[in-house]
TrEMBL record:
Record keyword Ion transport present: yes
InterPro entries: ATP_synth_OSCP/delta_N_sf, ATPase_OSCP/dsu
GO CC terms: plasma membrane; proton-transporting ATP synthase complex
Keywords attached to this entry: ATP synthesis, Cell membrane, CF(1), Hydrogen ion transport, Ion transport, Membrane, Transport
Protein name, UniProt field: ATP synthase subunit delta
Lineage top rank: taxon: Bacteria
Location(s) in or outside the cell: Cell membrane; Membrane
UniProt topology in membrane: Peripheral membrane protein
Signal peptide positions on this chain: none
Species of the source: Thauera propionica
UniProt similarity note: Belongs to the ATPase delta chain family.
Function: This protein is part of the stalk that links CF(0) to CF(1). It either transmits conformational changes from CF(0) to CF(1) or is implicated in proton conduction.
Main localization (coarse): membrane
HAMAP family in the cross-refs: ATP_synth_delta_bact (MF_01416)
């Protein structure tokens, strides 16, 4: 995994510089999302590793499946195919998104909740977190019944644990001391 990130980094940097220079960070992000899904598909992985397919055939297959891509994006795919790097597209996408978010001053927030959050609660929570972190947040929410109640929020390397499970763990630790 770490090796894939190391391999993907120069490609993500190049894609980011191309996108930023063209003022097309959004379209590039969307294209890389589609390409990462294509590259992660098990059938496509089999095609990528199939020695019977030529680079041209593989390139055309990816372009046919990925949807509309600009000329620069098609060139980017061609470079990945020629250098046998299609398999690291998910890592390229992740690194590109991190660069894009840093450039735009956006932080990733992961919210785990014991129960589904309604839209009003989520909007209020997001506004409070954006005020606290003084940044725009890209929020991902998932349900974790193991929390028992409350939420656990991770923004960057900071974690806010307001879950019942977290409070019980804190009480247990306090009782042991």
């Amino acid at each position: 995994m770490a090796e894939n990130v190391t391999i993907a980094r120069p490609y993500a940097d190049a894609a980011f510089e191309l996108a930023r220079g063209a003022g097309a960070l959004g379209p590039w992000s969307e294209a890389l999302d589609r390409l990462a899904v294509v590259a992660a598909d098990s059938t496509m992985r089999a095609c990528i590793s199939d020695p019977k397919l030529t680079a041209g055939q593989l390139m055309q297959l990816v372009l046919d499946v990925a949807g509309t891509l600009s000329a620069e994006q098609q060139n980017f795919v061609r470079v990945l195919v020629d250098n046998e790097r299609l398999q690291v597209l998910p890592e390229i996408r992740d690194l590109f998104v991190a660069l894009k978010n840093e450039h735009e001053g956006v932080l990733e927030a992961d919210i785990a909740s014991a129960f589904p959050l309604d839209d009003a609660t989520l909007t209020s929570l997001k506004a409070d977190l954006e005020a606290r972190f003084k940044a725009k947040l890209n929020v991902q929410v998932h349900i974790d019944p193991a929390l028992i109640g409350g939420v656990r929020i991770a923004v960057g390397d900071e974690v806010i644990d307001a879950s019942v499970r977290g409070k019980l763990a804190n009480m247990a630790a306090a009782l042991k001391n």
